[in-house]
Write a structure and sequence with these properties.
Helices cover 84% and strands 0% of the residues. With 198 residues, the protein is mainly alpha-helical. The chain has one domain. Helix 1 packs across helix 2 and helix 2 packs parallel to helix 5. The chain is elongated.
């Protein structure tokens, strides 16, 4: 009954915790609900942070361009770039949130040493993901500067070149998917190391 009122991810967390703490017991469902709500709160806080950080990194890369001013002028190139940066940032950071949640779920299932290892690994993954997300956006701009020596990207963005906005947004989103996979590999390694030390 409770699970039918929740989002699919939250309902899954409730079901996993209930199974781990004794089937469909009310206590297990409650623990799962608390974990799911914790994940939701952390996700919302990190999402807000990700929007701010994604736009901040883009603003530094195209210094001299007021992102919100350009969006107000209906500059689609800058709007696409900003949207791509936010999606890229959140893609990378989402893997960190997933790892942290997996650690909490393992801990609730009663496997204390594995749960602690998974939780610490998940938190470490989240920290790495936040750090790497900004670097990924910066690297994309630096790489594109090398590939497009005959194009002044900042001038193209100022001029509202939608094509360059689409290309940059696509590259940022594609790169973020690859980088998110790499970051999750770091989390697995950290978790394995912590489990070996415990």
């Amino acid at each position: 009954m409770i699970e039918s009122m929740l989002t699919p991810a939250l309902a899954l967390t409730v079901q996993e915790a209930a199974a781990a703490t004794g089937g469909d017991s009310l206590g297990g469902a409650f623990v799962g609900l608390v974990l799911g709500l914790l994940q939701l709160v952390v996700s919302l806080a990190i999402f807000t942070f990700s929007i701010n950080q994604g736009l901040s990194v883009v603003s530094k890369m195209i210094d001299g361009i007021d992102i919100w001013g350009e969006i107000k002028r209906k500059n689609m190139a800058v709007a696409l770039l900003a949207a791509g940066a936010v999606v890229a940032y959140t893609n990378v950071v989402a893997g960190g949130v997933d790892s942290m949640t997996a650690g909490l779920t393992t801990l609730v299932k009663g496997d204390l040493s594995s749960g602690i290892g998974a939780l610490i690994g998940g938190i470490a993954n989240l920290v790495v993901a936040i750090a790497v997300a900004g670097l990924a956006i910066s690297w994309t701009f630096k790489a594109m500067d090398k590939f497009t020596k005959d194009i002044d990207e900042k001038q193209e963005f100022r001029g509202g070149n939608v094509a360059i906005g689409i290309v940059y947004a696509g590259i940022l989103v594609g790169a973020s998917e690859l980088i998110a996979s790499g970051v999750s590999g770091v989390s697995s390694g950290i978790t394995a190391l912590i489990n070996a030390l415990i």
